[in-house]
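Hi D.,

Good news: the full-assembly prediction came through. Inputs first.
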Amino acid sequence: MGMDRRTFLKLGGAIVIGSMITPGTQYLLASQEKKPGEKSKTRWGMVVDLNKCTGCKVCEKVCREENNVPFYGNKRYDAYWIRVANIRQELPGAPERYIPLLCQHCADAPCVHVCVTKASFVRKDGIVLVDEHRCIGCRYCVVACPYRARSIIFRNSNTWTNKELPRMMIGVATKCTFCVHRVDKGVEPACVEKCPHNALTFGNINDPNSKIAKIIAEGKTQVLRPEKLVRPGVFYKGL
Amino acid sequence: MAKYYFAPIEGKTPKYYWTVGILGTLVLGWLVASYVRFIKGMYITGMSHSVTWAGAKVIFVLFVGLSAGSLIMSALSAIFGQKEYKVLGRVAAFNAVLFMAGALGILITDWGRPDRIVLPFYMVNPRSMLSLNAYIYMTYMTVGVLYLWAQLKENEKWTKILGITAVIVAIFVHSGTGFIFGVVNGRDMFFSSITPLAFVVAALSSGSALAMVVLYYTFKLTKRSIDMRFFQQLSRVMLGLIIFVFYLVTIEHLTHLYVPEAQEGEFYVMFSGGFFTWVFWGMLYGLGLLIPIFLLLNPATKTKIKWILTASVLHVIGVLGERMLFILPGQFLPIPIFPGYELASSFQDGVVMPYIPHLAEIIQFIGIFAFIAFVYIMGLRMLPLLPVEGKFVKEQDH
Amino acid sequence: MKMKAITAFLVFLVILTLPFLVSAVNGDILSQAPQPKLEKAKAPAGVENKCVEEVPYMRANHMNILKTARVQVVRNGLREKYKKYSLENCFTCHRNRAEFCDKCHSYAGVEPGCFGDRGGCHYANTKK
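Then the structure:
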């Protein structure tokens, strides 16, 4: 061999490290993802006023149209980003009420903790997103979510009502994004804008002057499953 | 001290070729079913949004357990055991590698996007148990293959070193698999720190059970004579492990009965679950634990090879039942998002979603078993795994 | 035994160098590759009628540009900054996918994840 061992090892190591780093570099570029324990000025959140919700399910329909969420007509694998559930207290004569359930955009999101490839992540502004290009479809996040907020795309989807956004990718996990493409433009999410009864309020929780922060400051809101300590960004009023 | 002389089997009988052919067809079926499932999407399986980890995950966990158990049994018998135990070393190590390969195969074909197989290796999320497991599994495979290789090369020193390493890694592997479920805070039926220990102990017991069954039938079908004392001694070890599994499973279910979050699910499993109640009492406690313990304690049956093997097979079935009970009801039982409320929605909130495996999945399950059997009998013909009757190697020849 | 090993090594060597051998036999295969045909849409008034980067650079690096834009938009939310590198922006000029994209991609055997037959999430504004 014309090459001594040290040179060979150096060269081999360089090649191995190089081939490992090259595909990874693009993900390391000035990451804006939230680091644990970091405080940011913006945290998007939502308040759902259950006294105003009538269960009309307009939000479900609007969400499907805005985000191309597929509907196959099979209750086993229909995807939902927001769904309106009926709840009734287990007391005689208690009335039936309606509650929109969506991704709670937790600060300590369990789905982000368990994600194998960091496809799920928390943005600096508190929105939990799935990078569908990176998701391997292992479905750990679906198991880990305490709110059942996630859907798997079980089947090739033909739903393509909003041509500005891509179609749903098959075999990956999806969930509510707070309509991040609208939020980045400064527009409210579609369900908030189109709700006929103004039951949903969207805004920056960390800004004390915003409308949503004032509602929360009244002290009449609560989060779902507070015992899980995931610090959700969606608050419910009048439960 | 004489050592066994190992050699590959002849493998030229029509029976052998027929077995290879049938198993090969089933493996092909597995590949086709996996491909169809990948192209069509997961809707051709029986899964729903409530049960996203289903039969494939059950088999994955069972296989990881069998693999870890086999490897630990192999290492312990090859390093510390008597001379008779050394016949187990190679076959069990080979089985361990095979079962891990099968487990990874069924895990990856269960993903929604198996085409992105490389991503977990360079995008590590240290908070995710499954992500760390990707590396633990690869380490395990490497150590397992090297350990088998050291045995085949008759290298005593490296067999010892790699064997001890393999035992440690195997314990990590199965603890890690237990942690995949044990750390899920959102599911009260999963969240438990006893899961890794229960998984490791069940892996050891089912691994030794499997090792006995495989070894006995391999010897019988290749017309080799066996030392019955070996099976009798190993069955004592297995009895102790089965009693330990019994204890761990019982305290886990008892704890669930006393915890408000898991109480409802535990009542479902124990009394009102239909199929799963049968699995719990019949498959897990009856077939898997009580009957084997009885068979191995009863003086009339505990020394008979027939009953030892029956107990082994029943125990493996019982461990399969345990995995089913662990993974499936933990998912499809409704999550108490609103305690004290009745909940219903079009997304199947508050409803028990049944899981029935569909055709493609069943072909996958059969095919993965066939894959292991296929590679096993091919390996018997290609590698020196089995001792040759009445032929020994003297120490100084070496 | 030795003969067998040498034969196996030779076969391996041939397989390893197959791409070079094929191009040595076929001559300059790059010139035989199908050229993409650009059916430009009329540029809207006030918009410069040229690509976001120089053409040779785009030819070599369009996939990396798209990938970087994808990561920056999805993960970091830099929608405005990377708007000109978005696929949607490409499709405003390169409207005919079959003539412009597929010709080279199918010749080279590359199926892009963006608008491949399996993923197929991104080709809303193009003809297929």
